[in-house]
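We treat protein structure as text, and this decision shapes the records that our systems exchange. Below, we set out a record of this kind in full and without editing:

***
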Amino acid sequence: MDLRAVTDQDWGRVWPFMREIIAAGQTYTLATDLTEAEARAMWLIPTALVAVAGDTVLGIGKFHANHGGNADHIANGSFMVDPAHAGKGVGRALGARVLDEARAAGFTAMQFNAVVSTNTAAVRLWRSLGFEVVATLPGGFRHPVHGPVGLHIMYREL
């Protein structure tokens, strides 16, 4: 698996699994009918990376300032792994690399604003990479299977 900057040419291999994850409505606070153009604008940014094996895009990650002004030193990160490649270390590799790149870019911490509490694989991964749950918004996410569940705010110093 290689990690590299995302390119426009990667999008056709990212959007199919991203569309599936978003439409399922189980792990992201994005509209389940998010358009391809909207998703592309959100994810094809200069700090986005892809994990690839040959011509296959396994996952994507990105970081940016979580807020502006005097809070612009805290990064935010987002990640999606193709479900066909889940459990193979793709998320861990992307997460570790994004943390390194955010630190190198001068960020002092990273905050995830909305980790769905029932997404136990993600919670476990982020905890293993040094994040802690600093707050949970009870019932903050309307899960299509489990009903109202918590949204964790997770944080880690860089």
In short: The longest strand covers residues 132-143.
